[in-house]
Amino acid sequence: MSKIKELRERAKTIETEARSILDSVTDKTPKAEAEAAHQKFDTMMDERDRVVAQADREERAYKAAQQEERRRETREREEREAQRPGQEERQHNPAQAVGDEYREAFRQYLANGADMSELDREAREALRAGAQEIRAQNTGTGSQGGFLVPTTLANTINIAAAAHGPMMDGTIATEINLANGAPFDMPMVDDTDAEMDPHAEGEEGVDDDSGDIVIGKTQLLAHVMKTPWIKWSFELAQDSSFGFEALLGQLIGERIGRTGNKWLTVGSGVNEPLGFVTGAPVGHAAAAAAVLTFDDIIDLEHSVDPAYRTGPKVRFQMHDQTVKALRKIKDTNGRYLWSDGDVTKGVTPSLNGKPVSFNQAMAVIGASAKPISFGDFSQYYVRKVGNPLIGVAREKFFPNLAIMGVHRIDGAPGQTKAIKTLQMAA
After folding, report:
1. Which carries the bigger pLDDT value, residue 56 or residue 178?
2. Closest listed residue to residue 153, CA positions, set 88, 103, 202
3. Where do runs of H (alpha helix) occur along 267-344?
4. Is the pLDDT at 193 greater than 70, yes or no?
């Protein structure tokens, strides 16, 4: 660590000296002397960059060594815990069980055709602990299907869901994840039009109820979505080399992502979430039914209150076919509004300098359609109930197996001023 500190201090010293040389050059400095100073400055700054790069390499090596040391200490601690007397009798709790252990028990459960009798006692205890939590969420257990999805698998499913719909991504909207499906009241206050009154000396305050705060609420429920049965052969299930987690994460995650994103985008609010397109007011009406202009984009942006036009979750959302049309639009200076960004650097596509999320649940450009939404999506709230659940069918498809994914979500806009839509002409 001392070497890293020395390198960084050296780089700072070189930078200071180089800066002093550059600052010494004025309009009165002879040309040859000025050129020599500039050359020396460039040489010193090249040396400074080399020292900084070396310090960065040393720091990365130091951090890697620290991480490896922590992993070694963790492994040794787990090995000591496993050797303690009575550990073989402990009861598993899904909130405390070691992730790898529970995941392996879940894999064995699937590989043995959802037959609990084929599992050893430790695996059965881990799965039963999971079943207890599922019962708290009114989901079937045991032979009726259903054990908690292992955390590592749930993460895979959630990532796959996000990849197939931006509204299932917690970085796009505001996500609330609760342990049960009881109705959740979300209070809302809109005080943006309230102002102060001038006060004259000796004047009493007015008590006419004009300053009262009106608190509304939106109730988020827990609508259930489920996949159809996904079947596979028992031979494949018994192949220990087969990656069950990859299968479940891809198939179930994609289905949850597509359906959940559709609900949260264009859902009616009746027995399903109220989608942001459905719940958002129209901010701008285009003059044409099939053509968008630069002015349409500007008018949509400025239909959103300035208070909601900044922040990390402010963005456009649109279908890929709408993007295709927008690539051809230029501003008044002849510059294209659309930018593809840079995926290698994590730079997202943008429209007129604002990030864009591709949302295939949105309408494409056409008469009366609402192909573009813009605003602060932190003001759209997505309520989830825990992680997705998995049901396994054994006898129903014997000798083969099948799984079904279940997830509970809801969603609604928090403030109607935060997100607006663009509607095409009829």
Report:
1. 178
2. 103
3. 276-279, 294-302, 320-326
4. no
- Using the CB atoms, write b or e for 364-403: b if 16+ within 10 Å: ebeeebbbbbbbbbbbbbbbbbbbbbbbbbbeeeeebbbb
Instruction: Give the DSSP H/E element, type plus range, for residue 409.
Output: strand 401-413
Q: Are 402 and 345 in contact (CB under 8 A)?
A: no
CA-to-CA separations, 139 to 109, 121, 142, 236, in angstroms, rounded = 18, 23, 10, 27
pLDDT tens-digit profile of 9-25?
888 899 888 878 878 88
Q: Write out the H or E segment, with its range, that includes residue 262.
A: helix 244-266
Instruction: Give me the helices (H) in 1-120, please.
Output: 2-23, 31-82, 99-111
Q: Name the residue with higher pLDDT: 323 or 119.
A: 323
Tell me, what's the pLDDT at 272?
94
Where is average pLDDT lowest: 18-22, 58-62, 362-366?
Answer: 58-62
Lowest mean pLDDT of 16-20, 31-35, 128-132, 188-192, name the range. Answer: 128-132
- Please list, in sequence order, all residues whose beta carbon lies within 8 angstroms of the beta carbon of residue 128, skipping any fewer than 6 positions away: none
Helix (H) or strand (E) holding 121: helix 121-135
Q: For tokens 């806009």, what's the residue?
A: 413
Instruction: Please state, in angstroms and rounded to a whole number, the distance separating the CA atoms of residues 167 and 317.
Output: 10
Higher-scoring residue by pLDDT: 235, 64: 235
3-state helix, strand, coil in the chain (%, to 5): 45, 20, 35
Structure tokens at 97: 């069980």
DSSP label at residue 167:
G
CB 425 within 8 A of CB 287: yes
User: Degrees (nearest 5) of the Cα angle 141, 136, 260?
Assistant: 85
Contact 284, 420 (CB under 8 A): yes
Q: Strand, coil or helix: what is 386?
A: coil
Find the DSSP H helices in 363-425: none
pTM above threshold 0.70? no
- Tokens 């994103």 identify what position? 261
The one-letter code for the residue type at 245 is E
- At residue 390, the pLDDT reads 74
φ/ψ of residue 413, rounded to 5 = -70, 145
